TrEMBL record, chains A, B:
InterPro entries: HTH_LacI (IPR000843), LacI/GalR-like_sensor (IPR046335), Lambda_DNA-bd_dom_sf (IPR010982), Peripla_BP_I (IPR028082). Residues 3-57 form the HTH lacI-type domain. Signal peptide: none annotated. Keywords: DNA-binding, Transcription, Transcription regulation. This is Transcriptional regulator, LacI family. Pfam families: LacI, Peripla_BP_3. It comes from Actinacidiphila glaucinigra. Gene3D superfamilies: 3.40.50.2300, lambda repressor-like DNA-binding domains (1.10.260.40). GO terms for molecular function: DNA-binding transcription factor activity; transcription cis-regulatory region binding. SMART domains: HTH_LACI.
Length: 368, 368
DNA sequence: GCGGTGGGGGAATGCGCTTTCTGCCGCCCA
DNA sequence: TGGGCGGCAGAAAGCGCATTCCCCCACCGC
């Protein structure tokens, strides 16, 4: 049915080996022969069988990209950037001949640890050339150990691993031989960003700041919360753990969680003058809830987000937030996973975050 | 290095064939034998080689999803939904045994026709089980013919094809044999939605309506524009082609295009009372430009978008737009491409769009 | 003119798995 | 008791390609 190498060889009057060599260009072939082969390939509309090639050459042109949810711009931006890098450099996905580009397999884990593990297995099955893990790690349970195990096996079999926006995995630091070098991390400075954000609020005069955190078991949640509390502590506002927890509500990284959390915070502390959200999406939910309660932003209450997603600047009002250069981070992860860029020292690179002060934060009202 | 079927067979004291049968469960194997094999698999941490399997069985667990840009929520939402369906049903991506789920290969074409073609070749190379093409088609050039050709070949080789948010390809209607049934379309009613949107504006009393269209050669752009003009014509406001074109500016589907286009429209027609944008993202850019010009929305000028992306409700003001059930459409496309749902009659399903009237549109000022 | 040399091409092997095609064994029925 | 049959398992033939090894044939130097 399908056209095979042998068909092309027959038509060009050469052996299959020669066709293979022409296609891969890794062996000298006379110009005239090459031309005949190429013409035959064209005539027959031949397309190599990737599986056969992968099997014979023990290589793969797949790179897995694990994300919590592609529909979330945070991950979409990263995935897009990774994809741009791995599919044949800066320009278009390479044509037939070159083919240095690889295919991105985007895996939606939905934030589920089991799904993450399953996808890792699927990728191992496909002998993926590389894997990019994005989003915060799930901590606490045995999950991180399980992931570490899978990653170790992947790394051992030559798969390059890049953690993007996720802390390094200690278990992977001391892998035998070259495997250790194939695990790299592009981390975000969540802690520092969160700290600067809260410092900004404190500088404006806020003293009663609510915090809408993400799911408790995620590293991203923890780091941002730590940064927030570090700022509080430095300002001498640490308070008791109970007090801190009273002004902290956990939820998911989505709009409705922000909405619910804002209501809850208001119930716990009507004197709130500012709310920091886990991310911009959550912040939008917070704003919606506050507005429905008749509060004006930022006159009555300030709101801040995180990530600086594209829509944040168009929100009402424009959101004060912390910018993470997601596309740059994703691009870098893509280059690393492709082996096109030297690994950073220690295999760890941390991308800076930047405070973006906009219209959703202001000094609290005098009365407050 | 890697553990193979033979290793497992040896450890279990059976032949490779038996191991294969246990793993695939497509042949009777005695319970005790199965158990021994399973234990060996577990002991050895065996993971099948997907390429070898694909080669031998002439099947693949890859499904390509072509999008213009994953970072764009429009495509992210669709991709996410498709992905959810193909990776093992409603729940998590199937574990090791079942394995009915497939992997989604998300391909960012960046809207480039060549990239689209290249990806199609790459997917053919991987003998993809299915391909979902999203986003409007590029019309006019020879591109659609080229795409039709590639799709025809894919379909002929058993790959299921689903066009999502893209008009049917006429050349593919009369493929020989079963191939015709493997091409399906989930279209969006862009035309109808656009028409209802403009009718809404007309009903409010607007008579001078600017239109910020997408790239001229895309089918989506054309359909929305047609709907818009159909509404105008029905209201007896058709005007001359020149007049229509004067109030139409083309750009990309991004924020900055909307920004620039709004300025241009204002220059051409200061008396504008409403602007319809190609999509919500563009509408945001339009709003930003208008606001900078000191115009209030909707008091001075109304703005409408399209798609009803998640952020639209949180924009300032909340955007009037046309909702496309993207996740449902994507999920349907996913089911179709997996063969889990019977193809719609004629292979064509059209998803309805719904007018969402919100705060960005209102009656024009009396003076205008 | 002869052995040497090296560029170019073919034959054959194997990658790891699926899948006939056989074949063995124990059981039932005549 | 013997022929058959059903339930299982093994042997082996590929799937389509990359690659190693080998060979052939100019062409060169002596």
């Amino acid at each position: 049915m399908a056209v095979t190498l042998a068909d092309v060889a027959a038509r060009a009057g050469v052996s299959a080996a020669t066709v293979s060599r022409v296609l891969n260009g890794n062996y000298p072939v006379a110009g005239s022969t090459r031309e005949r082969v190429l013409r035959a390939v064209d005539d027959l509309d031949y397309v190599v069988n990737g599986h056969a090639r992968a099997l014979a050459a023990a290589t793969s042109d797949l790179v897995g990209v694990l994300v919590n949810d592609v529909a979330d711009p945070f991950f979409g931006l990263i995935a897009s950037a990774v994809q741009g890098e791995i599919s044949g450099g800066a320009d278009q996905p390479s044509g037939l001949p070159a083919g240095a580009g690889k295919l991105a397999v985007v895996c939606n884990t939905g934030g589920s640890p089991e799904a993450e593990l399953n996808y890792l297995t699927l990728l191992e099955r496909q002998r993926a050339a590389g894997v990019v893990l994005t989003g915060g790690a799930v901590e606490g349970t045995g999950h991180s150990t399980a992931v570490a195990g899978r990653l170790a096996r992947l790394a051992a079999s030559g798969t390059r691993i890049v953690l993007c926006g996720r802390p390094p995995v200690p278990e992977l630091a001391d892998l035998p031989g070259a495997a250790a070098d194939s695990v790299m991390t592009v981390a975000f400075d969540n802690r520092g960003g969160a700290q600067r954000l809260t410092e900004h609020l404190l500088a404006l005069g806020h003293r009663t700041i609510g915090y809408v955190a993400g799911p408790a078991e995620r590293s991203t949640t923890r780091h941002r919360l730590e940064g927030h509390r570090a700022a509080l502590a430095e300002a001498g506002l640490a308070g008791s753990p109970a007090e801190l927890d009273r002004l902290t509500v956990h939820g998911y990284y989505d709009r409705s969680s922000g909405y619910d959390a804002a209501l809850e915070l208001l119930r716990r502390e009507p004197g709130l003058t500012a709310v920091v959200a886990a991310n911009d999406t959550v912040a939008l939910g917070v704003c919606a809830a506050l507005r429905e309660r008749g509060l004006r932003i930022p006159e009555d209450i300030s709101v801040a987000g995180f990530d600086d997603l594209p829509f944040s600047v168009d929100a009402a009002p424009a959101l004060t937030t912390v910018r993470i250069p997601l596309q740059e981070a994703g691009a870098r992860a893509g280059r690393l996973v492709m082996g096109r860029q030297a690994p950073p020292p220690g295999g760890l690179a941390t991308v800076r975050t930047e405070l973006m002060v906009r219209a959703s934060t202001a000094a609290p009202r005098k009365g407050a």
